[in-house]
Amino acid sequence: MNASPPSMATMQNLCSARSPSVSGDATLLAYLSDESGIDQVWLAPLGGGAPWRLTQCDEPVGTIAFSPTSRDLIFTSDCGGDERHQLWLVPEACAPAVALDHDPSVMPLWGAWSPDGARIAYCANARDRHHLDIYVMDMVSRETRCVHQDSGFREVLAFFPEGEALLIRDARHSLSDQQLFRFDLASGDYAPLLPPRDRARYSAPRFVDDGHALLMISDHGREFQGLMRYSLLTETLEWHATFDDADIEAYALSPKRDQVALVVNREGWSVLLLHGLIDGTQQIVDGLPQGVIATLNWPVLSDELLLSCESASRPSEIWRIDPQRGTASPITRSTRAGVNLDDFIEPSVERVVSFDGLSVPCLIYQPATPMPPAGYPVMVLVHGGPEAQWRPTFRADLQYLLAQGIRVVAPNVRGSTGYGRRYLHLDDRELRMDSVADLDAVRGWIAEQRDVDQRRVAVYGRSYGGFMVLAALTEYPGRWALGIEFYGIANFLTLLETTGPWRRKLRAAEYGDPQRHKSALERFSPIHRIADIDVPLLIVHGMDDPRVPPSESEMVYACLRGLGRPVKYLRVPHAGHGFTRREDRLRVFATLASFLERHL
């Protein structure tokens, strides 16, 4: 390590690029970059050349999507992180942006362009804030029609090839219990596309075989996600590529349609493969940093793949891959703030046996600094979700911890994705506290390590990970030196009453119904045992958070303050579920660094 490791503020000035999208004429690349301090749309010639910034928004950009027939570009942007992402159009990717919707209280959910670029389809909760209906907009007249009304949560995935129907992903039950529907725009018929299976997920659909079949990623009837082909003519499905121990997370079809590039999730790391659709042969594509791949593209008439890739030691960049030659080169080169990325640490994997014999994978980050006389302090980092996975992506705060000589342990407790369907559902509803017991098993494993200072073991999490922090401190007091929780859940009943109305039923499917499972939700809620927290706690919350309202943190702070416990609370105005503005991150993580210096 350098004699003087970068400060937390310097770490937060590292920039990144992600979410590549290619214009319909395959000449222009659009992507998101936070060089300005918030995510904005940048453009670059696909054949090479200097990039330039397209949007000058006061708010971060969320999604970008080119028309399939032109350079018309749609992007989304919310206000203060409220997740009501309004739709904007940039004609020909050069004219001033035009707002396509005008009610900031509505949550539009971006869907798809029609194949001819004449229409777009999306979902929105304009009629009823609890439910998402389907809308179609004519891109010339800007006339918008609500074409289907229904209860629950749904998304437009694509137009059918002739533009006569929409492919809908319906998740009215839960985000991990989805169904695909065909919505006929002329007749209004809303019909299931595949035979129903218990709890299936579907993503990345693409029409193939002249529109007579769908290629998509799914775990339909399987433990892990694979690449599936569904024939619309015979209503049969076949699996093009599957693994018995890993999810396929993304794919891109080659222009010749004889092979696909696959992204396979193995223990959190992405493996890029070329898979032959005719002979089934597979070849690993090398040249990228060992990390996590996202947003895979294989432009028409191109021999090269485009993707975004990041690792634990490298912020995300856009990469160009020649799969035949085995070459890889970054297209973007984001600001590095004078930081030597070679000093950053990559993790390894350990497995911890939990109370019932379950093997819990953990990513272990070992500082390069010498061991202190009393042993290394440890920070246990818990991911949010809970249906998510701790992966070796770049975290500036994590690398700061390592530079300070703090070992980091990041477990994927039961309920995490990436380890199969059974593992995913092991924490559902009445099993909620089993995941907290997994966290305690990780703490027990740390207690067995001879090079750890057992007086300095802390726990840190965001969102659902914030609940895990509060639960760890209240269920197993005396095991932790301090806690850090960002926008965490304190009371599941109040959360389900106050979270965004479009999210309530989805969260109830995971946590429990407030009526039928009231007593269990009360038992799971750390607020009822808040007096058991007797170690320093840092709380941080965005005041416009639509997912976990600030009231969750307010009640924790009020209770601990009233009990005279050591608690620090940072309120962040005009911020949502996470801190997307660099100025907010500088303030938040300066507070975190100061808290650690004082208490750990």
TrEMBL record:
<feature type="domain" description="Peptidase S9 prolyl oligopeptidase catalytic">
    <location>
        <begin position="393"/>
        <end position="600"/>
    </location>
</feature>
<dbReference type="InterPro" id="IPR011659">
    <property type="entry name" value="WD40"/>
</dbReference>
<dbReference type="InterPro" id="IPR029058">
    <property type="entry name" value="AB_hydrolase_fold"/>
</dbReference>
<dbReference type="Pfam" id="PF07676">
    <property type="entry name" value="PD40"/>
</dbReference>
<dbReference type="InterPro" id="IPR001375">
    <property type="entry name" value="Peptidase_S9_cat"/>
</dbReference>
<keyword id="KW-0645">Protease</keyword>
<dbReference type="InterPro" id="IPR011042">
    <property type="entry name" value="6-blade_b-propeller_TolB-like"/>
</dbReference>
<protein>
    <recommendedName>
        <fullName>Peptidase S9 prolyl oligopeptidase catalytic domain-containing protein</fullName>
    </recommendedName>
</protein>
<dbReference type="InterPro" id="IPR002470">
    <property type="entry name" value="Peptidase_S9A"/>
</dbReference>
<keyword id="KW-0720">Serine protease</keyword>
<dbReference type="GO" id="GO:0004252">
    <property type="term" value="F:serine-type endopeptidase activity"/>
</dbReference>
<dbReference type="GO" id="GO:0006508">
    <property type="term" value="P:proteolysis"/>
</dbReference>
<dbReference type="Pfam" id="PF00326">
    <property type="entry name" value="Peptidase_S9"/>
</dbReference>
<keyword id="KW-0378">Hydrolase</keyword>
